[in-house]
Q: What sequence folds into this?
């Protein structure tokens, strides 16, 4: 669900200006403790922007939905854990591994559902995915949908997941 292969992210971050622009926060999150502090200062507005305002299909996140995310991220260590994903993605060790190793193919059946209007991730991240997957693979673009496809089009996501799981079971 709008989650690219990590090696495709690395490839695009060194060659695609559009993806670098979309992923500016990857770099901002590398500074220890500062992102957590800044987000905590105004977590409610951060989440409103990140979820409600970034959704292509307005209304995908209600105020109560956003409050649930806020309560979860207010728990000790939760925000740091969420940011750790981005820190790890751009760590020197990850960079060296991605640049020096051949791509290890994914061997599990894989379904990729991609919101065509994702403001965070370029559609170019999906190019060549079929070469990275050595298992049953299905890719489907979801029109008029952003990064949060499971909230924006839950019926479509559920239908596609069930169909894929039944076909690959």
A:
């Amino acid at each position: 669900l709008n989650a690219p292969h990590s090696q495709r992210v690395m490839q695009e971050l060194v060659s695609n200006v559009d993806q670098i622009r979309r992923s500016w926060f990857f770099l901002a999150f590398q500074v220890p403790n500062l992102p957590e502090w800044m987000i905590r200062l105004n977590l409610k507005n951060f989440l409103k922007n990140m979820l409600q305002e970034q959704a292509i299909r307005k209304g995908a996140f209600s105020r109560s939905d956003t409050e649930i995310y806020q309560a979860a991220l207010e728990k000790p260590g939760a925000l740091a854990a969420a940011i750790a994903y981005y820190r790890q993605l751009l760590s020197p060790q990850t960079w060296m591994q991605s640049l020096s190793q051949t791509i290890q193919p994914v061997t599990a059946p894989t379904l990729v559902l991609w919101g065509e209007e994702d403001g965070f991730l370029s559609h170019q991240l999906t190019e060549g995915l079929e070469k990275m997957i050595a298992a049953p693979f299905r890719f489907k673009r979801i029109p008029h949908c952003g990064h949060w496809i499971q909230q924006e089009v839950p019926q479509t996501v559920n239908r596609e997941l069930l169909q894929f799981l039944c076909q690959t079971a």
